[in-house]
Amino acid sequence: MRFETALSYDEFAYAQKFAATSLINLLKIHKQDFENIYEIGAGSGVLTKLILSTLNYQKITLNDLYKSEFMAKFETQIGDITSLNLPKVDLIISSSVFQWIDDLEALKNRLHASLKPNGILAFSMFCGGTLEELSSYTKQGLSYKNSNEIRQIFEDKFEVLSVKKDKFVVKFNSLKELLNHLKQTGVNNINGKFRLTKSSFKELENHFNGEFHLTYNFVNLICKKRELQ
């Protein structure tokens, strides 16, 4: 998520806020007290603000590809999570980020190695069916994994404490409003070979048939590090 191209993210990130809130509510059922927290993809602080108001901790480190204005107030580690040297922590948390990671298997191994014994990995990620109203027309977009695939990736090195699937539907008054939402949140899958022209705009408008909405399906996982032999 490149926040320099999505300056009004907080204003339009309805689904992302819903997913982050759902994640925190699920996590606090299991544990609320941590020594060191590492957040992946902090951005404008949608999840961070919930962490600050809900969890108890001694230290928090925020990660993202770019340092947002919000992140400047915290200790940060800027860069690609798939190649950074991660600190030892007892909670790694992330929301609305892992769907962008091509190799979740490799990321899982890195996160497992960086967690302390009995450390917790808590994340929410968008899964199959997300933005299907748009991708059914454009025939492109992220290849979202389904919730079972996601669980299977992590459960060999983590004990899965909770899995919760949910969805959030965002409704709009027009196609223009819908497209602006995608632009402001950086989740625009109208790219590649597809180009939005005057005629294709009208075709896309007809495709929605007056029902301008987008569905975000997501899954929350709360996992505990397995101590492997």
Description of the structure:
- GO terms for molecular function: malonyl-CoA methyltransferase activity.
- Keywords: Methyltransferase, Transferase.
- It is an enzyme of class 2 (transferase).
- Its EC number is 2.1.1.197.
- With 229 residues, the protein is α/β, with parallel strands linked by helices.
- It has a single domain (3-131, 143-169, 216-225), classed as 3-Layer(aba) Sandwich (Rossmann fold).
- It is 34% helix and 27% strand.
- It has eight helices and seven strands, in the order ααβαβββαβααβααβ.
- The chain has helices at 9-12, 14-30, 46-54, 104-114, 132-138, 147-154, 175-185, 198-208; strands at residues 36-40, 59-64, 75-78, 89-95, 115-126, 158-171, 213-225.
- A seven-stranded mixed β-sheet has the order 3-2-1-4-5-7-6, sandwiched between helices.
- Helix 3 (46-54) links the parallel strand 1 (36-40) and strand 2.
- Helix 2 packs parallel to helix 3.
- The termini are far apart.
- Residues 1-7 have low confidence and may be disordered.
Number of DSSP-assigned strands:
7
Overall shape = globular
- What would the CATH topology be? Rossmann fold
Largest sheet: 7 strands, mixed
Oligomeric assembly: single chain
- Report strand order across the widest sheet: 3-2-1-4-5-7-6
Question: What's the CATH superfamily, by name?
Answer: Vaccinia Virus protein VP39
Order of helices and strands: HHEHEEEHEHHEHHE
Kindly report how far apart the N and C termini lie.
Answer: 37 Å
Question: What CATH architecture do you see?
Answer: 3-Layer(aba) Sandwich
Rg, Å, rounded: 18 Å
Helix content: 25-40%
| CATH structural class | Alpha Beta
| Classification by helices and strands | alpha/beta
Give unreliable regions as ranges: 1-7
Count of all domains = 1
Mean pLDDT: 89
Sheet-strand content, in percent, reads 25-35%
Count up the helices.
8
GO molecular function: malonyl-CoA methyltransferase activity
Pfam families: Methyltransf_23
Protein name: Malonyl-[acp] methyltransferase
EC number: 2.1.1.197
